[in-house]
Amino acid sequence: MKRLKPMDAAWLYVDTANTPMHVAGLQIFSLPEDAPEDFLRNLSEEARASRSFAPPWNLRLKPSPLRGVLPAWERDDDLDIDYHFRHSALPAPGGERELGVLISRLHSHPMDVSRPLWECHLIEGLEGGRFALYTKMHHALVDGVGGMRMVQRAMSTDPSAPFRPPWSVGADYGKKRDTGTASSAALATPSLRGFASGIPSATRALVNSYRAGSSDGDPQVAPFDAPRSVLNKRISAQRRFATQQYDMRRLKKVAEGCGGTINDVVLAICAGSLRRYLKEANQLPRRSLTAGIPVSIRPQDDVAVGTAISFIISSLATDIADPRKRLEAIVASTDRAKKHLQALPKEALDQYTMLLMGPYIWQLLMHLGGRTPPMFNLAISNVPGPKETLYIGGARLEAMYPVSLVSHGQGLNITCVSYVDTLNFGFTGCRDTLPSMQRLAVYTSEALDELERLCG
Questions:
Q1: Catalytic one among 138, 139, 367, 408?
Q2: Whole-model pTM?
């Protein structure tokens, strides 16, 4: 058994029918030029025939019998592959709209906690001879960076390489497994000791974060320094999903022209899109929206089970009409927030994240999300993806889109992932909160065009 870290367990505790805590990835593939008519059927049969399951695909939740002791993951190598892997097809014409409708529906369904917490859907029928893979996993099992690395490990840069189902590769593929056993107390004690040792440093940093912005000229945003908005109400179980893809070179030119980073440009085009979308709906707050930005603290070669992220909070400067001044304000805010996080000792990062996100998790546990002031208005994250063209069974990966989670008080999530020379945006929102959410994706394109004219 492997005992969960407190932050991983928190994602399980706040999981409900209206707020399922799973994340997903959508990959679009083009068929090989010489692909036979039964290519996808053979791929599906080969996937079902695989009975080699690597962690975390073969991990099932085991509740703790002791009150106050964190739950654990236990091995389950006899899982039902027909439940976890499914083959379906889009109705004609199989365009972006039809795919978005299907992904929205699949992402709305909660997961069965009595089974390993993942599903993989092979979707055929996309126009242009393409197909898709949609894979979702519980956030307690994996974060965005870990998920992208697992996807990458299941593919190959060689188009002639044999097909390997993702669950046969896993997170610790090629690494020595710890087969020893230990009691519940032995598993819990080291984790709790390590967690407690970093609390003093983490507490000081948290107090400083709440003092942010109190002095003149300090661009750092404090937790809960966010205006109430339509994004921060109670949500329903149904989701909407939209995508957008950009040439990375365009983003780099804008970043160089304005003296910021690609992440700053991502925030700026999201801010421009949100400002227009909410203004058209007469829902734009007078004060600036704020964004919670996950920051990976996972080492470069680490693909372990669980989450390894912390958070910074940045202003989106949606109260500024001028796009260039808005971008400059975002650059100043993110730079200040990153310096605050980087000043923390490494051994206190997990503790700081738990203390920082504790009020947010508490809101969800107490059913207060959407009823009390939001910690930030929405989450925006940028996940580094593969830098080389990848293939699965000879099929070329054309695009990959993240599908994230939303919760009460956080009705919209924008996540993007890089792939070769593109940046792929996934917009995940509550269906009832954000009508015509596709416009958000379209407006980011217009916001980027505007920044190119000003900074490019």
A1: 139
A2: 0.86
